[in-house]
Amino acid sequence: MTSLILSPAEQDFITRGVEGGFRADGRGSLDRRQVTLRTNMISQANGSARCRMGHLNVGTDVLVGIKAEVNTWTPGEPDNIGSIVCNVECSPSAAQEFEGRGADELNIELTQLLDRILNGPQSGICLEKLCIIPKQAYWVLHIDALVLDVKGGIVDTLIWATRAALLSTKLPRVVVESIEDEDGNLQSEFDVVDDAEDQIAVEGVNNLPLTVTFNQIGKRYVIDASEQEEAATQARITVAVSPSMDICAVQKSGILRGFSPSLLTEILHTACKIAREEFSRFKDTFAAVLSNQSSNEANTGSTFLGAF
Amino acid sequence: MDIDTETQQQNLTTQIVTPGSAITSDPAFMRGHGTFGEHGTIYSSVAGVVERINKLVSVRSLKQRYSGEIGDIVVGRITEVASKRWRVDVNSRQDAMLLLSSINLPGGIQRRKSESDELQMRSFFAEGDLVFAEVQSYFADGALSLHTRSIQYGKLRNGTFVSVFPQLVPRSRSHFHTLPCGVDVVLGVNGYIWVSKHVPAAKVEANAEHIYSNKNEEISETERESIARVANCIQLLNRLYVKITDTTIIFAYEASLGHAVKDLLTMDIATDLAHAVNSRLAQQG
Predict the structure, then answer these.
(1) Over chain A, what is the mean pLDDT?
(2) Which of A5, A26, B45, B245 has the most CB atoms within 10 Å of its CB?
(3) Which tens digit of pLDDT belongs to each residue from B35-66?
(4) What is the pTM of this model?
(5) What is the pLDDT of residues A176-206, one digit of tens each?
(6) Residue B103 has what DSSP assignment?
(7) Domains of chain A, each with CATH number or no CATH
(8) pLDDT tens-digit map of A216-271
(9) What are the S1 motif domain coordinates in residue numbering (chain B) (predicted)?
């Protein structure tokens, strides 16, 4: 993803390490780096989260903000569902090549990936519940992600942050009233309750998937590749798995090579196995974040020197 | 009056500043590096620590690029092959140059570089290759000119690359160390560090024909683990802002032996190890 070029000797060192199951930083092929998570950092948003994946609090860093908006229905749109609009942007502070238009391609790729995972029944989010009055008004969730640092494995970090942000999202309650007009037809009207205490979570967020990205290096593959490993990667595949262990999205990237069918089957099986651990890890991390936050109310996002 | 300047000195040396913070408005002081003056007040232009030498006030930034000096040992990555020269990334403000005339030919043949050498420059160094070199001189625009005219300089193989803050690597007599654990470390003053399997010098000299080869030697499991451990130790020293020398690396390595290699880069263990290194350094005085 980044423009790092490795020397043939480094490539060989990494490849042989991966094939032997011992990576350059001592991890095994299926080990992840440390994750730092924090939620509700943006007070103006309905939900937000920041996730960093990397060693010693330096690593791929993604900030996600979610803003809910009421949209009026226009003909041609689906009758009774809400919608999700994703946008991913890579900050030029993350890498030099993101300067100017350098990040455009990656932005589109990530935006599309996020949209394909979230905007549909495969995401687990109950889009029908985002509809306020059929053919009249519905909620739009704007998911805006900002990639602040890149040290390999953007997609998984992005999904972690998005999942945490959606889990922390609170929508204002909406009161729908039906009034009979003079012709005897029922007319619906709605009212958004403006009360910070009276808010509800998004329906179905607990069914959101997590992704596992596999990088094929040599004959084997690793997850959560570092920047240098990504430079040695021949093919990459992202597998999104739901908490019920269904594979709900698969995207291949990297143009150098493809996967052999047998390796692909192995990867899909491994993805489910890893996803199971990932979900329990996510749950623990997220619970720790929530308990930390209730004890420490001052949530400025500006403590960059520490673990945020 | 004496006490007054004394306390002021104390205040100035322990001060941490960000760009634009006022340091002093005392006209007795002179502006040094990392500062600018406006309306008789000295402000910091970088984030760092205020330093005072007599009347000169300067700010040492916490993060900086490498500024080269002649004779420095550096590790660099080739970014471009140009006519009769390579451009090398050395973590500096601009890329350094490595002239075709300042490299050794395979086998150490002494002759002027011909046009045929120019045509096969990529067989010596190609884009992405890591080189171990010495700063020979400056160009007029401040870019560094490197040379690799020694048997120990040249292409780096058999290991892994770690990048650290350049200010953490002090200049010393030797930058090529063979650690007791059988790992070679090249500490580039520019903050680029190469950690590799130990290859005896005699073997390197015997292979003078192959100084530009890209082929790694066979690296065993245990050697790989030692390399990873040393690389992780350097990374944690860098992150916790400890000076990186052969001594501190050995201290960190020895302290780390109780932990698995992959756990070294978790915050708790890394902090413990850095404390252990610092206290051993303090003991040595």
Answers:
(1) 88
(2) A26
(3) 999 888 999 999 998 888 888 999 988 888 99
(4) 0.88
(5) 888 877 777 778 888 888 887 888 888 889 9
(6) S
(7) 10-294 (3.30.230.70)
(8) 998 999 999 999 999 999 899 999 999 999 998 899 886 678 888 999 999 999 99
(9) 69-149
ipTM of the complex: 0.87
- Residue from A13, A30, A222 whose CB has the most chain B CBs within 10 Å, to mutate: A13
What DSSP assignment string belongs to A47-101?
EEEEEEESGGG-SEEEEEEEEEEEEE--TTS-SS--EEEEEEEE-TTT-GGGTTT
Does the beta-carbon distance from B128 to A5 stay under 8 Å? yes
Chain B residues close to A10, C-beta within 8 Å = 128, 130, 160-161
- Kindly state whether A22 is in contact with chain B, defined as any CB-CB distance less than 8 angstroms: yes
The packing angle between helices B221-239 and B267-284, to 10°, is 80
Closest-approach residue (CA) in chain A for B129: A7
Structure confidence at residue A257 (pLDDT): 81
**Per-residue DSSP letters for A118-152?**
HSSGGG---GGGGEEETTTEEEEEEEEEEEEE-SS
Contact (Cβ atoms closer than 8 angstroms) between residue A293 and residue A230: no
Cα angle A183, A189, A195 (rounded to 5 degrees) comes to: 160
pLDDT tens profile A64-92: 999 999 999 999 888 888 999 999 999 99
Q: Is A26 in contact with B228 (Cβ distance < 8 A)?
A: yes
Q: How far is CA A26 from CA A22, A285, B95, in A?
A: 6, 23, 32
Residues of B with a Cβ under 8 Å from any A Cβ are 77, 126-130, 155-161, 214-216, 219, 221, 224-225, 227-229, 231-232, 235-236, 239-240, 260-262, 264-267, 270
Smallest Cβ–Cβ distance between A34 and the set B128, B231, B266 belongs to B266
